[in-house]
Amino acid sequence: MSKRDNIFLVGLMGAGKTTVGRLLAKHYGCVFYDSDHEIEARTGVKIPLIFEIEGEAGFRKREEVVMTELTAKQGIVLATGGGAVLSQINRENLRKNGVVIYLRGTPEHLYERTRHDRNRPLLQTENPLAKLRELFTQRDPLYREVADIVVDTGRQSVAGMTRVLFGRLDLLRSGLPLPDTES
After folding, report:
1. Which domain holds residue 114?
2. What strands lie across the sheet with 99-104, from one edge to the other?
3. Using CA atoms, how far apart are residues 113 and 97, in angstroms rounded to an integer?
4. How many whole angstroms from its chain centre is CA 31?
5. Residue 139: left (phi > 0), alpha (psi -120 to 50), or beta?
6. Of 144, 182, 140, 143, which Cα lies nearest the Cα of 164?
7. Measured between alpha carbons, how far is 26 from 31 in angstroms, rounded to an integer?
8. Which of 54, 21, 12, 46 lies closest to 140 in space, CA to CA?
9. Residue 183 in domain
10. pLDDT at 30
């Protein structure tokens, strides 16, 4: 299996991983997976309930199992949960088994996209924007560590972003080096 057979999307919640992932999967004729949806399907409950019962540590254990299975598949596009990169095992599996795209959004932009979403347990705080800033500070270096491609989600539409990604992925899949820039 070639690393180029899989596409993995990482980034904070609300960055558009699922939306962009579905478009990439359709374009390349791949099967699409969302690791959070897989966890919910396997447990039969929503992620906030897993957090409530098992805490974040319990959820992360489940996530690591699902991520290990999914990253071992071939010919897929995978939208990961925002915290999947916290696990060293997940980071290694992402790096070695696929092309990793980091959809990078500013905390302010992501707050606008997620502020009414009650299915995001880490944002059920007094100050969700401060929490997003904290998560960004903690996770941005980890996303960059695993990423082959970094795309800024705040400046362009989903259509524009996917066009940029098609071009970069086609370069990678053909074996050509990527330009050293972020979009």
Report:
1. 3-173
2. 31-34, 76-79, 7-10, 99-104, 149-152
3. 30
4. 16
5. alpha
6. 182
7. 8
8. 12
9. no
10. 95
Q: Quote the CA–CA distance of 172 and 183 in Å, as a whole number.
A: 16
Q: Say what percent of the chain tops pLDDT 90.
A: 62
Copy the structure tokens of residue 17: 């991983």
Give the Cα separation of 29 and 54 in Å (integer): 36
For residue 87, the domain's CATH number is: 3.40.50.300
Query: When comparing pLDDT for 155 and 76, which is higher?
Result: 76
| 29: region left, alpha or beta (phi > 0 left; psi from -120 to 50 alpha) | left
List beta partners, residue 9: 79, 101
Residues 112-153 have pLDDT tens digits of: 877 666 666 666 777 888 988 999 999 999 999 999 999 988
Residue 62 covered by a domain: yes
Domain count for the chain: 1
- Strands (DSSP E) contained in 7-115 are 7-10, 31-34, 76-79, 99-104
